Task: structure prediction
Amino acid sequence: MIKWKAVALLLGLMLLAPFGVAAPVCVTDDQGEELCLDHQAKRIATLSPGATELAFAAGAGDKVVAVVNYSDYPEAALKLPLVGNHTRIDLEALLALKPDLVITWRTGNPPAQMEMLRALGLPMFAIEPRTFEGVSKVIEQLSILAGTEKEGFAEAERFRKGIAVIAKQYRDAEPIPVFYQVWQTPLMTINDNHLIGKVIRLCGGVNVFGDMPRLVPRISAEVVLETDPHAIITGSVEGAEDNQLDRWKSYTGMTAVAKNNLFFVPASPISRPTPRLLEASRDICQRLDVARERE
Result:
């Protein structure tokens, strides 16, 4: 009996196909929740700068109708309507744009507002890739939801191959102790579970705070001195030198200072889990190569 029901269902789907009735589009987000759309998304809202980048990377940039503050890449994103920032969404402005897909940031958007959007029946897809493969996977998933699989899968594979090339190049590199400074005051860094930590490891670096339990821990200057990093790296606008690392210059006994290994990299590519991590990884690898030459 069950078998005949299955056959009948299959025949029914075959009969519907010529009349343009599409099967639901289903993918699973970074919260483990499955989202099924009756049709491919045509009006997409992205509620973080990283989500905006990933939507464009998936080939769906022309379908994005709403973004939040600091969605500054690619340049086309600067021309899109703003609906607040990632921690406070202007719900009225968002709803007025009638999105049929809302891409949220799993730990960044306000939970209460996200529940309100869910209660209103808006299709929501939560993302926050924590691995290189996760970045590629999210791009592929977004392209499936938007019907831009050709562009999205090609970009995801380009990113995979680029990371694989770097991994092969640096798999036998001399290990070098690295302190990555996320923020100056309060002093903050990252552990090995953070994507920045994975970039450091990719380049043959050893994150001196890699085993700390929190993803972005607060630390003191004293514990940094105790670890004696051989390189200190931070992000800045366009990678230009500023005063963020000046506090360390007085500690002339620290190896990173003695060897002049205080490095700046462009902040946006290294801080967002998007395909630009590839260029960010190359930047950090090059800085660590300089530090190795000075050992």
Remarks:
- The chain has eleven helices and twelve strands.
- Residues 149-170 form the longest helix (22 residues).
- The two ends are 75 Å apart (CA to CA).
